[in-house]
Amino acid sequence: MTELSKHYEPQNVEDKWYAHWEKAGYFHSEPDDRPSYSVVIPPPNVTGVLHMGHMLNNTIQDILVRRARQEGKNACWVPGTDHASIATEAKVVKWLRDEKALTKGEIGREKFMEYAYQWTDKYGGVILQQLKKLGASCDWDRTAFTLDEDRSAHVIQAFVDLYRKGKLYRDYRMVNWDPEARTVLSNEEVIYSEEASQLYHIRYQISGSSEHLTIATTRPETILADTGIAVHPEDERYAHLKGKRAIVPLVNREVPIIFDDYVDPEFGTGALKITPAHDSNDYALGKKYDLEVISMLDEQARVTEEAGLLVGQDRFEARKNIRELLEEAEALAKVEDYVNKVGRSERTQSVVEPRLSLQWYVDMQQLAAPALEAVMSDEVDFYPKSQKNLYRHWMENIKDWCISRQLWWGHRIPAYYYKEETFVAANAEEALALAREHFGDEQIDLEDLKQEEDVLDTWFSSWLWPISVFNGFEDKKELDYYYPTSALVTGWDIIFLWVARMVMAGYEWQGERPFDKVYFTGMVRDKQGRKMSKSLGNSPDALKMIDEYGADAVRFGMLSCSPAGGDLLFDMKLVEQGRNFCNKMWNALKLLQMWEATEEKPSDTQALAEQWMQHRLNALSDRLPGMMEQFRLSEAIMQLYNFIWNDFCSWYLEMIKPEEGHQISNQTYEATRRMYAQIMVLLHPFLPFVTEEIWSHLTEGKSDCTQQRLPEVGEIDSHLLEDMEQARLMVSKVREIRNDKGISGKEPLELLLHGESHRLWEGSFRALLMRMGGLGALGYADKRPDQSVSFVSGTDTFYVPIGEFLDIGAEVEKLKKDLDYAQGFLRSVEKKLSNERFVANAPEAVVEKERVKQRDGAERVQKIQAALDALQGGESK
Fold first, then answer.
1. Tens-place pLDDT, residues 403-428
2. Cβ neighbours of residue 388 under 8 Å, at least 6 residues apart?
3. Which of 677, 672, 680, 638 is nearest to 655 (CA)?
C-alpha cells in the first residue's frame, strides 16, 4: 500500500482531484431517462471575485448537486456570470482613461463596446475559475453569460413580446438618478441609511407684503427650481394666505401658495416648497396643480442654465455657495444639524437624485398575480417560510419596473424611432418593415430609423436565467427536461430584484414556476455579529484561506455555523476545526493501513463492535435525507462530524484495535474498510476532496467516490444501539473516575451493579466493558461498598470501589450536582404533563413517551438521592 503522509495535505490533493473530475466529465449533464436535478447559479458579476457570501452560497449548491448525483439523479448545475451593466461599464471607462487615455465620448459606442468585450475577456469571469478551487461541481460546458448570443436573443424576444402584449411602455416619470454612473436606478438599487445632515430654514416673502413664510429643507440649492409652496387646508397659521403668492429668494420668482391635504402640519414649519423636477412627491403635486417644471440639475448633478444662478457648479458645491447667498440676502433664518435618510446608489455609492426622465417600464401589475399565488400556496416552496411575508408585502405593493439604463454596456433596447412613431422589433430589418407598413412608404430606409440609445437593466436578462440557460425560447427539449429547476440558493437581499422577477417570468413565458424550492441563505457575519465587509476589515481573503487550510476545511468552517436560513457567525477557529477533522479522518486511514489481518474469527468485542457500527451507520443514513430536504445542512454536517470523530474514530476503532502483538480479523478489517468507504460517500457532498482521497486508498483506486450511489439504509436495531450507548456511558464514567482520582489505566477496577441482573453483564457486552473500561471484574452489590464512588446510568446504580483514592467530600458534591440536574429534568417533564392542552392534543404515543420519562426520571432521582444519603451517612460516621 502507498505510504501515507504524516498529515493530510490538501495542497497536494485538491487540484489533482478537481482536474481528474473535470477530465472524466463527471459534472456534465445531458437529458436522459433519469430524473433530472437542475440548479442555476445566481450569476455573479463578471467583474467579481470570490468572497465569503459567494463561498457559502456555492458550497450549499455544490452539496445539493453532489447529493443528487448520489441519489441517481441526472444533476445539472449551470454556471455563468452577469454582465453587470453599471459596475462593468465603470471599470471599462476607468481602464480606458488610465491605460489608453481615451473617453467614451471620443471613441463612440461601437468602439467602446469592442473595448468592453476586450476588457471582459481579459479580466472578467475570474470568479468562475475561483469557484473550482472551492470544489464547485458545475457543468462548465454550459457556462452562460447574460450578454452572450443565446442569452441576448432571449432578452430581445422577451422585450418585444411584452411590448406587443401591452405590458411594456415608455413614459416620463420621476426616477432615481445616479449622477456618477449617469443612469436611472430601480428602487431596489437605492440603499437608504441615516446620515448626518443640516436643515436650512429659508424665508420666502409673501408677495405685496413684508410678511415672510419660513420653510425648512435639507437641499437649499433646489430653491432655484421652486414653482410653488404648499400648506395644509386646516392649518390656521396660514389660512390668511389663501390666494396669495410667495417670492422665491435669490431668483425673485413669484409662485402660488397651494392648500393640500398632502402636507403634514406637524412636520417642520408646516409649509413645504414644491420643486416638481427634483422630488417625486413634488412632481405629483406639480401635476395636480399644473405647476411649472424647472430642471436645475443635469445628468451629472451640475446646475443648469435654467437655475439662473451657480450655473455649472456641482450640487454640493452649489449647496455650500447658496448658503452664503441666502445669508447675504437675509433670507436664511437658521441652520441646524439634522439626521435624515439618504438614498445612495448600490453600485457607485453616489447620493441618488430624483429626476424627471423618459424611460421604459414593465407593467408589473399584469405579471404579479400568478407569481404571488405560487409562493403563498407553496407551489414555489420558500425556506425559511418567514421570507414569504416579505415577498407578499412587496408583491402586493408592486410598482412598475423601470428597465432602461443610460449606458452602452448591455442589451440595447430594440426600439426604433421614425418621425413620432416607435417600432419595437427583434432587429432593425423587422423594425423597418413595420415602419414601411405603418406609413405605407417603401422609400423609408434603415438610415432613417434611430435605435434607442439606452440599454436594459441587467436584471431584465437575469430574470430569464432559468429559461435562457437552457435556450428555452429556441429548444424545448432541454427546457422540458430540466425546467422547472429543482432548487434555487440565494440571498434574501435579492428576493425582489431577482427571485420575484424570475417567478413572474416563469409564469409569463412557461406557464409554470421556474424552480421547486428557494433556499435563502443568511448573511455572513463575524463572531461579533457584524456584517463582513472590506471597509470593516473583518472579511478574510477567501482564496488565501483555501490555500492555507484547504477547501474542505473552509467549507466545514462555514457550514458548521450556518443555521438553516439564519445568519452565519463566522470564526476562523471553525476552519481550524475543519482542518483538524480532515487530519482525524486521515489518521484513521493511516491506522487501518498499519493493521495486519488474519484469517482468525473476530473476537466477541470485534464482532459486537462491527455489528453496532453498521447499525449506527444505517441510523445516520436514515436521518440525513430529512435534513437535506429541509436544508438543515449545518445540522447534517455536525451529525456526520460527531459520528466520524466520536463513534467511528474514538470508539469503534478502539473497540476493534488488535492488542499489541496480535492481528485483526480479516472479516472485521474488510468490514471496517467497507464501512469507512460508505462514510466517505455520505460525507462527500460536504467535503469532496478529502473524502475522494481517502476513498481512493480504501478502494485502491478502483473507482471514484464522486460517482458512488448513496449506501442503502439497512436494518436498524434500536435495542442494540441503546445497549451500546449505555455500555459507552459506563465506560466513560469509569474513565472519568480514573482521571478524577489519578488512577492508572493499568490498575484493574471493579464495576458493581446495585440491583437486578443486567443484560450487559453477560456475553459480548461483558467482554467489551471489561476491555474498554480496563476492568478486572463485573459484579453485583446489595449495598454501597466501603470506599467506593457511584454513578447512575438510566435507572441503575453502579459502584466502583477505589479504596484509598476516595475523596468523600468531592463525591458528595458531584452527586449533589447530578441530583440537581435529575430533579430539573423531572420538573420539566412534569410541567409538560400538567399542561392539559398538551395531554389532550398530542398523539397518545408522544404523551406515553413523556410518562415513561417521568417514571424513569423519578426513579433516577430516587437512586441518586439514595446514593447521596448512603455516602453522607458514611461520611458522618
1. 999 999 999 999 999 999 999 999 99
2. 375, 376, 382
3. 672
